[in-house]
Design goal:
The protein is mostly helical. Helices cover 61% and strands 4% of the residues. The protein contains 3 helices and 2 strands. A two-stranded antiparallel sheet has the order 1-2. Helix 1 crosses helix 2. The longest helix has 35 residues.
């Protein structure tokens, strides 16, 4: 799934207005891209070149969400809420 997300992210880095659809769950999805609504096709190699960078960004975004959640939990605990109360409040 991260590979599909990375492909989409790479396409949007090259053309923020691109409209595409694709199928698959790995790098072979590149071969199924349908360029929609007049979107000019992007060279497959350009997309491939950006995938490693996009994967790093996806991982960083996921880690930032975890860090933000942990920071919020710590701040709420500092205000006197227990971890159980925080988890119940936010359905964690």
């Amino acid at each position: 799934m991260k590979t599909i997300l990375a492909i989409s992210k790479a396409i949007k880095k090259i053309n923020p207005n691109a409209q595409v659809s694709m199928s698959g769950s790995d790098i072979s999805a590149l071969d199924t891209i349908i360029w929609e609504n007049g979107t000019q096709p992007i060279n497959k190699q350009q997309i491939l070149d950006l995938i490693p960078e996009c994967l790093v960004e996806i991982e960083a975004e996921a880690q930032a969400k975890i860090d933000n959640k942990n920071n919020a939990l710590s701040k709420l605990q500092a205000l006197g809420l227990s971890e159980a109360e925080v988890k119940e409040l936010f359905k964690l």
